[in-house]
UniProtKB/TrEMBL annotation:
The chain crosses the membrane at residues 12-35, 68-95, 107-131, 137-160, 181-203, 209-232, 244-264. It comes from Variovorax rhizosphaerae. It comes from the Bacteria. It is a multi-pass membrane protein. Keywords: Cell inner membrane, Cell membrane, Membrane, Transmembrane, Transmembrane helix, Transport. The keyword Kinase does not apply. The keyword Glycoprotein does not apply. Belongs to the binding-protein-dependent transport system permease family. Residues 69-260 form the ABC transmembrane type-1 domain. It is found in: Cell inner membrane; Cell membrane. Its main location: membrane. Pfam families: BPD_transp_1. This is ABC transporter permease subunit.
Amino acid sequence: MHKTDLGQSAFRIAFGVLMAFIILNVAAIVAVVAVNSFGTQWFTGWLPESFTTSWYSRAWKEFQLGDVLWTTALAVGAVVLLSVLIGVPAAYVLARVEFPGKRLVTLLFLLPLLVPPMTYGIPLATVLYQVNLGGSLWGVILANLVPCAPFVVMVMTPFIEQIDTRVEVAARVFGAGTLTIFRRILMPLLLPGIMAASLLVLVRTISMFELTFLTAGADSQTLVVALYYAVFAAGIRSAQSIDAMAVIYMLTTLVWVLIAFRFIDPTQMVGKVRVQKSS
């Protein structure tokens, strides 16, 4: 066996061991939280003395999870809708129109994705509080739009670039207006990309802590911020109730991540656009 083959085999083994170690650690942490959310007492031994589901009902009432989940759904839904309404037309302009300063505009769109949210989150929250939007649901929505709308632009631009411009030109030759072209030609072609961007923005907004924490008030907390306050706010709370809330948050995020992985494959979707283009 050559030295190159030995080096590649050693690298693969080391990489596999490292990945297995990371996965086992994450799985162990999740398992401890999940088991504790059902345990009554867990002082010694590998498992609690007994199990119960009462911690979930207690957490639901204690942390008002019904209101928190409703607020989360409103915020996430609004962010997804507004991000698509802003991002898709912006992506179309960037993909189709040449104008001076286009690279600078593209960089400005991508800047919120390249820098940590805290670097612009504090000035953004200050501005929102000055215009009386901080601490409200609209403040949370607007703050999350800053990174999410550019994310839609980044996802949608390659989809639009893959569509042959001659399709739109031919439609205009036969008398189709802009609205008709968008509704009957572009939308069917862009729908996979819009679905991909929407699901990814949804997952990103659910898990976005920094911007939501800086702009949320008592009545506009999403699930991730409510979980933070449950852990660090003043007062005594049972660890099992907090773990039950954490499990609810993990399951909520995991469901949407699995949906995203199940129905979204960027390479396949770009391939579909190319097939439609060639045909």
